[in-house]
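Postdoc handover notes: sequence design on the structure in folder B. Input tokens:
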């Protein structure tokens, strides 16, 4: 199924990044085998796409070495609360704006960035077909959507190849709901079997913020609630002779070939450490040991 590296370089935090810094990171990513980039029009209010485009302009042929995906749908204006907009005209305009900032004719994939409560299926489909016919986008995916939202939006000629969801040792709702079939799910938004739905359809599950506790509660390597988990990570890092971060990422990659993990940050050593995860295969017992160390219960 996978034709690219299971780690994706995420460019969310780009506020103060220089062109030469990102340039250095992209070449390191390629050395490590990481050949996919995730960006979005709202990341640093468009600056992430602009800086990436400048790096590509400096190195003809570099763009073709990466699978490039961007996301649109979140509107974030200065001094105004953000909102979501999936109107067809906005989606087309937003993609054109992204391509202008990137200085590119097309994206390998476009993800719809969180669901707009007002989204109209036919309007969205018309926009996506227009983008495909123009040659602006080759494939489509979604971000932070459940099963019903995915099925509502798909239509003839338009299917989604990925769903980007928060998943990591500090945020395991997607997995914990699979163990709670006969128990109170407490309103989990993943209770519709989303994990196995994606697996059955062979859609990529792209895990974002794999080290965050909760939505933005801080790093699992520092958060007080994750002390037991850190103890197990340290133990397994010794067993598998790799970093604790690599163990935390391999926990996700062990789930199957349809799982990809977005690794952010612009630190060279962190990226090298993260890349170790590809070669770590956790034993099932160790996977479950990590799972329960987070405070999640196996019934």
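Designed sequence:
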């Amino acid at each position: 199924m996978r034709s690219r590296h299971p780690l994706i370089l995420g460019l969310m935090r780009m506020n103060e990044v220089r062109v030469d810094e990102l340039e250095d990171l992209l070449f390191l990513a390629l050395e490590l085998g990481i050949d996919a980039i995730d960006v979005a029009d709202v990341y640093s209010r468009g600056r992430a796409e602009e800086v990436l485009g400048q790096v590509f302009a400096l190195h003809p042929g570099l763009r073709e070495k990466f699978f490039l995906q961007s996301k649109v749908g979140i509107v974030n204006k200065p001094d105004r609360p953000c909102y979501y907009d999936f109107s067809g005209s906005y989606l087309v305009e937003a993609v054109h704006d992204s391509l202008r900032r990137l200085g590119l004719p097309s994206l390998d994939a476009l993800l719809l960035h969180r669901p707009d409560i007002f989204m109209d299926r036919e309007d969205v489909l018309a926009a996506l077909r227009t983008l495909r016919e123009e040659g602006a986008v080759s494939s489509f995916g979604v971000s932070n959507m459940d099963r019903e939202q995915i099925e509502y939006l798909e239509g003839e000629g338009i299917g989604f190849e990925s769903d980007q969801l928060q998943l990591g040792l500090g945020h395991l709702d997607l997995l914990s709901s699979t163990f709670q079939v006969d128990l109170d799910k407490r309103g989990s938004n993943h209770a519709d079997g989303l994990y196995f739905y994606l697996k059955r359809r062979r859609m990529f599950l792209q895990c974002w913020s794999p080290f965050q506790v909760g939505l933005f509660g801080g790093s699992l390597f520092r958060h007080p609630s994750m002390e037991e988990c850190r103890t197990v990570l340290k133990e397994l890092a010794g067993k598998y002779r790799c970093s604790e971060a690599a163990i935390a990422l391999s926990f996700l990659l062990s789930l199957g070939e349809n799982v990809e993990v977005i690794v952010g940050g612009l630190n060279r050593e962190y990226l090298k450490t993260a890349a170790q995860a590809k070669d770590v295969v956790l034993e099932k017992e160790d996977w479950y040991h990590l799972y329960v160390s987070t405070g999640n219960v196996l019934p």
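Context for whoever picks this up: Strands lie at 7-10, 36-38, 67-72, 74-75, 83-84, 107-113, 137-143, 160-166, 204-208, 259-263. Don't rerun without checking with the PI first.
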